[in-house]
Task: structure prediction
Amino acid sequence: MKITKIEDHDKISFMDLLLLADEDEKMIEKYLYRGEMFALYDDDLKSICVVTQESDDVCELKNIATYEKWHGYGYGSELLNHIVSYYKGKDTTMLVGTGDIPWILQFYQKNGFRISHRIKDFFTDNYDQPMFEDGVQLIDMVYLSKSL
Result:
């Protein structure tokens, strides 16, 4: 298993995987080039993530995605642990915002994140099309945080 930092000129080539976690290409483009991208390979590409700097001591995981056929193999957790270690000492807090979907919230909580706050109507206010996950329309953005 290998985790690689992706250079800006290569980021767009990972759009298919990024779209699994955020279905709106325009939203991805808002953070893609202001963030750092990491890719996890185990023979071939399994997971990708983008982290942005939000203030002097706070970073935000904007996107993390694993190809569906590799869910449950620990690749997302491995990538998440890598970026937590990478940003430890550079930042004091890592944030992540997601939809109010139990299995996604459990993933982050299993990896040491705690629910911080929510932004009411985020998905309905910021996306052109209704967003769905597991047949549930996403309305509010749930933010979780982890002390680094």
Summary: The beta strands are 2-6, 35-42, 44-53, 58-66, 93-98, 114-119, 132-133, 136-137, 141-147. The chain is about 30% helix and 35% strand.
